[in-house]
Structure formats: C-alpha cells, structure tokens
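Hi R.,

As promised on Friday, here is the backbone we talked about, encoded as structure tokens. Could you run it through your design pipeline when you get a chance and send me back a sequence?
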C-alpha cells in the first residue's frame, strides 16, 4: 500500500558483505520535525500549566517577593519573625557554604513558602468571591454593600488570565435541599395539572421528601464533596452516550453561515479559509490564548473543542489532518506540511484536487456514514463485526482520529433564488441531516461546504453545548472574511508549495452483509429526516433595541411571546424547556428553566381576554422568568437535581413513583437561545450584511416544537423552528407566524408611548391608602 511505503523511514537488505541500510532523508527529516513540534507543544503546555497553577499571581511575582525579603534583611530587620533562622538551623552543614550563603538560601526558602501562602490565600478569596451570586438578583441602580465588596473580585482576578486560569477557583455546583426542589417543582407543575392530578402528585412528593429523598440526597452530597460537579458526568453518560436512538435530528445541532453574504462563490476557496481559520482557533486553544470573557463566564469546556473528535476516539497532538467526504469517497487531508500549517491557498489547492478526482466509490462506501445516522445498536454491532480489523479498521481510525470532518456537497444552499424563504428552510434541513449519509454524525463536528460557497456545521452534542461551538464558529466566520479574505477572483490568498503531497484516498472492503446493514440504517435515518418540518424565520422588524426601550429582559420578552404563540396555536399551555448555562461553576453545563409559569399563563389569559392590567401582569411574568433563569444559573434549578436523585435511586435499586413520573414528563416546547458571545468581532453598524443566522436543532417531542433563537444586534431576531410532519397538530410555518405576531403584539402592548392603566390603578390605590 502507498500509505505503508510512505511511512517507512529506512529500508535494509542483508548481503554477504553485511547489512545495507538505505535511509530516506526526507522521511527522517519529517520524523525530526514531528518530534520538534511535539517538544515545543510540551514546553508550551508546561509553561501554561505553571502560569495557571500559580494564578492569580504570576511566576515573576516570586522574584519580587524574594528581592523584597532580601532587601528587608539588608536593613537588619527580620520580616520572618525568626522563621529564617529556624530554617537555617535545619539546613545541612557544609564547608562549601558560608554563613552568608546559608542565610540567603534560608531567605529564598522562606520567600518561596510566603509566596505559596499568598497564592493560596488569594485563590481562596477569589473562590469565595466567585461563590457569591447575590449581584445577579439585585435591581438596576440598587447595589448592596455586599456586592460592592464582591467587586473586589477584579483585584484577585489578575491581569492576563489564560483560558484555564480560573478553573481552580470556580466553586463546585451546590446540591439544593430536597424540600426546596420539591416545592419549586410542585409550583411549576400546578398550572399544567387538574386539581386531582395535582393532589396526587403532592402526595407522592411529600412521601418522597420524607422518606427516600433524604437517603438519595446523602449520596449526592457525598458525590458533590468528591467530584468537581455532581451532575455533568452522569448527564453526559445517561443523556447522551447511553442513548440508543439516532443522533441525527434527535441530538446533533447545526450552525449556519452569514445570512446575506457569501464571501466567495468558489467552494474550494471557501473551504481553504474556513479550515485554516479552524486551525488558527485550534492553535490558540492549545496555547490557551483564548481569553475567558470574565471570571464568571468561563468556557471551561473549550478544551473539548477540536479535542474529542468522536464518540469513540480522541484527537492527539500529532493529528493534524481532517477527513473529507465528497461524492461517496473518503479522503485524508493533511493540514501541516514540513513542520508548518498549510496556508489557505494551499488548502484550497488540496480541496480542488479532491473535487477534481474522478474515481468512483467502492461498493458500500458511498452511504457508509448512514451507520452513524441510524440507531446506535446496529452501528455498534456492525462496527464490531466489520470494522475491528484490517483495512476497514485503519480507515475508520483515520476518520475518528481526524481533527474534524469535512463534507463537500454538490448542492447549492442559502437564502437565494425565487423562493428565498423556502431555500433557507432547505438549507437548515441540509445542515441538520443532509442526505443521511454525507455527514459523520459521531464526529465532534462536521464542516459542510456547498458548491456555491456557502458553509455551515453539524455538531455532536455530548462533548459540548451549543454556546461552546458557537464561540468557535463566530471566530471561524469572522476570521474567514475580515482577516484572511480573498483575491478579486474569489480565491484564497498566498502561494502553493510545489512539494505538497496530494490528499490520500481511504480504502474500504465492505462485504455484502455490511452493505445490507448500511441500507437498513439509511432507511431508518431517511424516515426520520423526511418527517422533520423546519422553518427559519429572520425577523427584521425589531430586535433587542426596541425590547430594551420597554425595560424588559430580551430573553424574558421572547419566552413570554413563545407562551402566547403556543397558547394561540394549541389552545393550551405546555411544559416548556429553556436551556440555561451553569458555567458559574466548575465543569458546569446546563440547567432547565421551566418557562411556563403561573405568572406567564395569567398574563396570556388576560391579554386574550382583553383585560386592562396586561402591562403590569406582563412585567410580573418577565420578572418571574428572570428570577427562574438566575436561579438556574446559580445552582437553584429543579431538573438536574431530580435527574441525579433518579440516577442514585437506580443504583440503589429503589423505585420512586414521584421521580419516575417527573422524569417521564414530555417537553412539548423545547427552546434555547444561542448567545452572540464575541460581539467585538462583528460590526453590525458598518457591515449589517454580515449577519450570522445562528443555528437550530430538531424537535424533542413527536407532538411538540423545537425553537432556537438568536438576537442579532439591535434590530434583528432569527428563529429556527422544528416539528414533525407526522403530527397533525404541529406546523413550523404556522407556529413561526404565531411567534412573530405574538412578538409584535407584546411590543405594541409595552410601547413606552402607550399609557399604562395598571400603573395608574396602582397609584390610585396608594393614594387611597394614604388618605386612610
């Protein structure tokens, strides 16, 4: 095989005269450069570990402490109060060391101990400050003395933190009290149950709280003392990794390109800049040069980005290639050559080589990725039987150890043509599931490049949540357009080295039985994909700017609009899931905000009934939603705690009717906001056309909706709405129209120019009380 020959650094033959060595100088040079790169990365990692280990101090501060102690001793004063002399007494006696040298050594040792003590104290103070979350619950303009003291976090947070500098200072996720969780759950469930159902659930809850709950809670507290986060590992294992249904649609999510702009119509050129930007991000990640946004917003899962490459494999420091899929064939494309990163123009050249390759796929190769799109058990069985040895194992390992996956599509996508809205919907479906065999759904993420230059991504969910991948994608998009750029002809900038080896075609030997299993997995995936009803709705009538004039949280505004739209769409309320981040805590991931509250339901009924106190009720509902969101962010959520209690009960073999019913509830409205994190990378004032479209996900329930939204600048909101054709009660386009109307109705209701009858009524009541 060609790959095997390329891997040989030397050959030898045995002759009567002895052994004749035939060295390949080029191969040995590559071995040398590879080792050199590896040692440079080790040194960089060691340096970063030292800097992170002593944070919030710096390594140079040690020298400052030593000099200060020695200078103080020079003035014949003892800052150690006798400790230096004690250390000197225990130093080994040596003729080569004078008394003065022994004194200096003792002073250096004392200075080092003092330095470590100061670091420990500062980190302890920083951890205590980061554990305070009262500032989140205070009203604007009213700052308590405690929060003013908490502002000292800036003093202890250092000047130039690296990516992981705050990790050791982040507090652990607290375990809420069982009675508090049960109380909040019953409050959230009351409005969705009849009186009889609520009375029955209250009885089950009280029985659980007074008996089994305390026992399960003891085990959770024990885990919280031992582990960094009592939720995250179980959440990853039981929610993501142990699932046996298809990842496609059910778990994976997608991210889109710019909405109105395609930087170049040349597919290979767009691939060149996109892949090079991914490499630049990966290099910044390895060097820990990505700055945490603040001490309270730590991208602590960024180390997974381009780190864990699939649900089966890990990327190593020496893996500098991507797996590429085009017209049913798989290629390995090296992104480093001769010890350096390939330029965008060189990557474009390599991608064009793949696009021009006329070779056909071998039998079974074209639809091989359908195994990752269907049910998990058939894929695991096929993997064990047909991909555990030989050429298939080598090629599969190549895909799973690649930095990420690249799909070169022959289709054109985007908001274009005579039906821009319909094409935008098809663009979203293409990113979500494609043709069910042209994305490797097990990979951490797949970068998709379309024929007309559009791009996008499909991301696997277990390794990180959407905000982490959004952070990566924001960097990639802006670097592609505003830093790397293109020539006037639309090609990448730079030159191509003549010695660049071409991409390597992966080889397969797929028997007929395996091909049958691929077809069965494809049938399952195709049925699932065809059932997805998707609608992408850009709303340009208003955005965050208009909402802020109403003095309402934009997220609360949209969530209440979703409640209003769902009520109008279905004539009832439903259990609503909104994802909230718990990144204030070490290894935090997500928590659930139960957005359907009694306050929001009261407001919706009042608005539909034409009552005059709607504005007051709306503000009350918005404040309640903000409170629930803050509670979820600060460890006071409901659902992750109940989930972990349920896991403990299963380990103990105990049955809890209360937990069983709670965890079997259906989330018919699943929502998530994709935050725009790196606002400084975009310029919506001077370049409004460079508007990111955000991303979305599939419906969680067969008879429900999935809604993802992103707030762009001051004047735009993008919605991604999903449901299933098989449910006659759901329609993504109709629900999208309902959401847009609800947003407009709420904006009209809360317009600052409109008088507030509820406030006049409240003032009248206050005056009446004064008269009394």
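Update: got your reply. Pasting your designed sequence below so it's all in one thread:
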């Amino acid at each position: 095989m060609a790959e095997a020959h390329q891997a040989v650094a030397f050959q030898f033959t045995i002759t009567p005269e002895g052994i004749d060595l035939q060295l390949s100088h080029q191969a040995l040079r590559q071995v040398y450069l590879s080792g050199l790169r590896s040692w440079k990365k080790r040194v960089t990692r060691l340096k970063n570990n030292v800097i992170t280990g002593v944070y919030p101090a710096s390594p140079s501060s040690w020298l400052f402490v030593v000099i200060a102690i020695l200078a103080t001793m020079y003035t014949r004063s003892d800052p150690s109060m006798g400790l230096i002399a004690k250390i000197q007494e225990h130093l080994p006696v040596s003729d080569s060391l004078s008394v003065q040298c022994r004194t200096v050594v003792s002073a250096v040792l004392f200075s080092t101990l003092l330095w470590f003590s100061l670091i420990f104290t500062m980190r302890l103070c920083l951890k205590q400050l980061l554990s305070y979350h009262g500032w989140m619950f205070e009203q604007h303009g009213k700052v308590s003395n405690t929060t003013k003291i908490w502002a000292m976090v800036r003093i202890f947070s250092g000047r130039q933190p690296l990516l992981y500098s705050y990790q050791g200072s982040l507090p652990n996720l607290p375990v809420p009290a069982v009675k508090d969780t049960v109380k909040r759950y019953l409050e959230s469930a009351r409005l969705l149950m009849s009186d009889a159902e609520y009375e029955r659930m209250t009885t089950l809850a009280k029985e659980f709280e007074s008996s089994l709950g305390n026992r399960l809670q003891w085990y959770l507290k024990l885990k919280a003392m031992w582990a960094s986060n009592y939720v995250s590992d179980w959440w990853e294992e039981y929610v993501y990794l142990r699932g046996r249904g298809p990842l496609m649609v059910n778990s994976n999510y997608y991210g889109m390109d710019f909405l109105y702009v395609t930087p170049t119509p040349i597919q290979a050129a767009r691939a060149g800049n996109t892949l090079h930007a991914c490499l630049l991000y990966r290099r910044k990640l390895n060097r820990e040069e990505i700055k945490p946004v603040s001490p309270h917003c730590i991208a602590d899962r960024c180390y997974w980005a381009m780190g864990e490459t699939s649900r089966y494999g890990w990327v190593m420091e020496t893996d500098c290639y991507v797996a590429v899929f085009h017209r049913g064939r798989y290629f390995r494309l090296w992104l480093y050559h001769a010890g350096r990163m390939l330029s965008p123009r060189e990557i474009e050249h390599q991608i064009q080589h793949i696009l021009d390759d006329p070779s056909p796929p071998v039998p079974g190769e074209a639809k091989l990725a359908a195994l990752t799109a269907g049910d998990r058990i058939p894929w695991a069985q096929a993997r064990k039987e047909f991909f555990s040895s030989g050429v298939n194992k080598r090629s599969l390992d190549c895909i799973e150890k690649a930095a990420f996956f690249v799909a070169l599509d022959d289709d054109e996508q985007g908001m274009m043509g005579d039906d821009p809205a319909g094409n935008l919907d098809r663009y979203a479906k293409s990113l979500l599931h494609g043709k069910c065999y042209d994305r490797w759904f097990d990979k951490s993420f797949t970068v998709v490049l379309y024929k007309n230059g559009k791009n996008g991504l499909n991301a696997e969910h277990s390794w990180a949540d959407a905000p982490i991948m959004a952070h990566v994608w924001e960097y990639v998009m802006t670097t592609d357009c505003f830093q790397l750029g293109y020539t006037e002809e639309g090609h990448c900038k730079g030159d191509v080295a003549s010695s660049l080896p071409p991409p390597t075609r992966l080889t397969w030997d797929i028997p007929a039985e395996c091909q049958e299993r691929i077809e069965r997995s494809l049938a399952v995936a195709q049925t699932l994909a065809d059932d997805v009803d998707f609608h992408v709705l850009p709303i340009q009538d208003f955005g965050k700017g208009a909402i802020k004039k109403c003095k309402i949280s934009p997220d609360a505004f949209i969530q209440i609009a979703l409640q209003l739209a769902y009520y109008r769409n279905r004539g009832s309320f439903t259990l609503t899931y909104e994802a909230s981040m718990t990144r204030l805590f070490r290894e935090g991931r997500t928590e659930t905000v139960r957005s359907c509250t009694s306050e929001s339901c009261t407001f919706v009924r009042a608005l539909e009934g034409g009552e005059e106190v709607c504005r007051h009720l709306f503000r009350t509902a918005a404040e309640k939603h903000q409170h629930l969101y803050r509670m979820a962010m600060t460890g006071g959520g409901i659902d992750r705690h109940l989930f972990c209690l349920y896991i403990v009960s299963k380990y103990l073999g105990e049955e809890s009717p209360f937990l069983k019913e709670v965890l079997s509830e259906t989330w018919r409205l699943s929502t998530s906001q994709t935050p725009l994190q790196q606002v400084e990378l975009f310029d919506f004032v001077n370049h409004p056309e460079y508007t990111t479209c955000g991303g979305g996900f599939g419906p969680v329930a067969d008879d429900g909706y999935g809604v993802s939204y992103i707030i762009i600048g001051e004047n735009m909101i993008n919605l991604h709405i999903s449901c299933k054709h098989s449910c006659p009660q759901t329609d993504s386009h109709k629900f999208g129209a309902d959401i847009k109307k609800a947003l407009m109705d709420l904006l009209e209701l809360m317009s600052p120019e409109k008088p507030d009858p509820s406030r006049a009524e409240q003032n009248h009541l206050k005056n009446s009380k004064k008269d009394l």
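One thing I noticed while checking it: The CA atoms of residues 282 and 306 lie 7 Å apart.

Thanks again,
M.
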